[in-house]
Amino acid sequence: MIEFKNPLEGFYKNEEEKTLSNLLVIQRNPNESISLRLNMKNILNDNRVEPVSMGFSVDSKEIPEAYELLIFDALRGNSTFFSRWKEVELPWKWVQPILEAFEENILPLHPYPSGSMGSEASH
């Protein structure tokens, strides 16, 4: 669930006009769906701000489980969704020198507090 900042909060002085935050909700197994709740002015209701929801979901009863599809592909010899060894090995050739540099303190880490503008070293 992603709750967006509410730009209308405090905008309306009337307590009845209190608005809800916009939300994006993504659900995964077993009920895959996505929904979005937005604030909109309703011209039929004296231009009051009201939440409007949109959603999309799939009836998962007819869809096989993810591993069922992978096993089926493996039995058929279809390797499209399987990684080859070179695809697994290549990223480690790129990452391993960075990990070693951190371990040997050749490349220092500069921690900083969450929500700040970054470490002092970045200035």
Automatic annotation (TrEMBL):
Domain Glucose-6-phosphate dehydrogenase C-terminal: 2-122
SUPFAM superfamilies recorded: Glyceraldehyde-3-phosphate dehydrogenase-like, C-terminal domain
Any one Gene Ontology molecular-function term assigned to this protein's record: glucose-6-phosphate dehydrogenase activity
Keyword tags: Carbohydrate metabolism, NADP, Oxidoreductase
InterPro entries per record: G6P_DH, G6P_DH_C
Pathway connected to this protein: Carbohydrate degradation
Gene3D superfamilies: Dihydrodipicolinate Reductase, domain 2, NAD(P)-binding Rossmann-like Domain
Coiled-coil features, chain-numbered ranges: none
Gene Ontology terms: cellular component: cytosol
Recorded superkingdom: Bacteria
A UniProt-annotated Pfam family: G6PD_C
GO biological process per UniProt: glucose metabolic process; pentose-phosphate shunt, oxidative branch
Name used for this protein in its record: Glucose-6-phosphate dehydrogenase C-terminal domain-containing protein
